[in-house]
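Q: Hi! First time asking for a complex rather than a single chain. Here are the components, and I think there are two in total. Is that enough to go on?
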Amino acid sequence: MSLEITVTTENSNSKRVSIAGSLDSNTAQELQHSVDAEIGDTIATVIFDLKELDFLSSAGLRVIFKTRKMMDNNGGRFLLVNLQPQIKKVFEIIKALDGMNVFKNQEEMDNYLAAMQNKVIDGE
Amino acid sequence: MNKPETSKTCIALKHKAADCRKLHDFLSKNIQTKNMPTEIQHDLRLVIEEIFSNIVNHADIASQDNEIKVELKHGTRSISITFTDTGKAFNPLCDHENCMHENDHSEGGMGVHLIKSLTDHQEYKRIRQQNVFTVTKHYNQ
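A: Yes, that's all I need. Here is the structure of the assembled complex.
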């Protein structure tokens, strides 16, 4: 099974990476290349949308966590949204969901982002 | 007493990541008629991917031209998968470099953790210059 990656700019400093298909040992490098090409220092928020992701192996997980680490080091935000049950199970097995910004759907994530924005506006 | 029904199938693969696709096809073809729950099928797909990647990544140059043999053995409500390769002695279950870093998953080590978590039994043997690694998964139909 192949991998399909779509990167969209949500606003000037936010990118959504939609990942469809199989993120495995054969395809993980494709995602790494997209991240390297699309996610620069000026990006404040990266959203990995896994709605169409059917399969995830440790090779794919490494790319996801490297991206998260890069965003943490840059003082940015890394969000995961729309995890299918079989994908969520993989994250749970490796005990990786604690401390991560994971949202079950778009609405939940939008509410979080709106709350974050309000905090900035309120000067908190 | 009736003997439990078992069946066995085998495939030979090359030491290259692309052959993982053939392995997935082989698994799918051999489990779709077994009335196996979808979640178990997904678990097995992930397990074989991790084991195969491990073998390919740890192969020395001398063994890269040799085959990796994979055998599926079905029991009544269980499946055993055995990987045999001629690479240098390598027991993934005792590979300290492969330990998962719980605070930094970007460092890897997750593959072995997934294999152990998603199967009920794992066994490594070194037999006649070959690594023989078997995992077994039990399931309810």
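A: The helical segments of chain B are 19-31, 38-58, 110-118. Let me know if you'd like any chain examined more closely.
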